[in-house]
Amino acid sequence: MEEKIKIAKTYDIVTKDIKDKIIDGTLKMGDRLPSEREMAEKFGVSRTSIREAIRALEVIGIIESRRGAGNYIVDNFNNSLLQPLSMMFMLQEYSALDILELRESLEIQCCKMASKIISKKEIEVLNNIVIDMSETTNEDKSLDLDIKFHNVIIKASNNPLIINVLSVISQLMDKFIKDARKIILCKDDNREKLLGTHKDIVLAIESKDESKCVDSMKNHFELIKESYIKIN
Amino acid sequence: MEEKIKIAKTYDIVTKDIKDKIIDGTLKMGDRLPSEREMAEKFGVSRTSIREAIRALEVIGIIESRRGAGNYIVDNFNNSLLQPLSMMFMLQEYSALDILELRESLEIQCCKMASKIISKKEIEVLNNIVIDMSETTNEDKSLDLDIKFHNVIIKASNNPLIINVLSVISQLMDKFIKDARKIILCKDDNREKLLGTHKDIVLAIESKDESKCVDSMKNHFELIKESYIKIN
After folding, report:
1. Residue of chain B whose Cα is closest to the Cα of A13
2. ipTM value of the model?
3. Is A102 in contact with B73 (Cβ distance < 8 A)?
4. How far apart are CA B56 and CA B41, in angstroms?
5. Over the stretch A44-60, which tens digit does the pLDDT of each residue have?
6. Domains of chain B by start residue, with CATH
7. Is residue A14 within 8 Å of A39, Cβ to Cβ?
8. Cα(A28)–Cα(A30) distance, rounded to whole angstroms?
């Protein structure tokens, strides 16, 4: 057990040291790390502990170890890095309102940004999703279309930070959309209303009118909130 | 090298499997995982690969291994889990505008929520920060106060999802505030203006008026945006 505590502590020290260097700009993507021997000496811990800490960072995809050439910060990230954090967000069991408040504020922002720069092709994709939504009666297909609709707008915002933040919690969002649809569609005439709010969002984006974007997204989320309040 | 690819793949398979079980609700915090032998058989990989994948999840703080009792999902998360992701966000080098758009939308939301439920004590903390801000001429102290000011409002929103999302990118935000202050304070009369926007935010929260909260935060971010646009 003591050995484990030692490794966990070394991991914390090593990650903190690397992060500090990233913050002050001395380490960037693709850069080489000091040797394991140098790190062991610097932090006064065994090379085994250093190796295991580095190994964990390698497995999760932050560091790349090149045989005989040392350890490097990766030069591009893949999705596996997001998995552990995505898990943490899934385990926390946030309330529907917590999720709604986050989604509403970020999607209003994305909608406003998207309206300024969205391409004709993306508008066409959104219009086609709405047509498919109106034609299908299969809920699995409707759910996929709903998730896709929001992702097209998020991506069209062209803000890589917001896109990355939302991708970290995308599973949480997808599950929320699934649960929310079930609750909203308990009431028969809500299917048309929900479709209507999606149509309005596309019209608002097309109009490039910022206040229409805000209002259409607000109405969309209002419908979801109302349904939750009526149930709970 | 092949061995490494095998372990990385096993890590991906194991994390995906655990995550799927978290999503469908069969695994919760504190739950026991299947034994390493069972997992090795299920996925058709060696126990060594499974052990190393589990080890990485343990080092980063998702799994806790209890001697002789197996592996468990942790029952509370500590900050070290956020470190690798925080690093990823630091390495991406987002533009000032990307960061401003994310912060503005989430902080407007936090300000609105906070205004409904903030305690008298928290209002007092905000007022004291503004007084300290007006009295100090030391930029390091001013920076700390600025960061603290925004964190008090974020925390007062009482939305744990937004708080967690912002804590993942807090280092990115702190660095942004530091850089933004340098740019804003190049112009002499901006010190008073910046202080004024902070004062207005407290008044808006105190008034519990939603539109005042939105306006005061917008004005605050407008001042930052203007300074950036003038420089770039």
Report:
1. B80
2. 0.84
3. no
4. 20
5. 988 888 888 888 788 77
6. 2-77 (1.10.10.10), 82-231 (1.20.120.530)
7. yes
8. 6
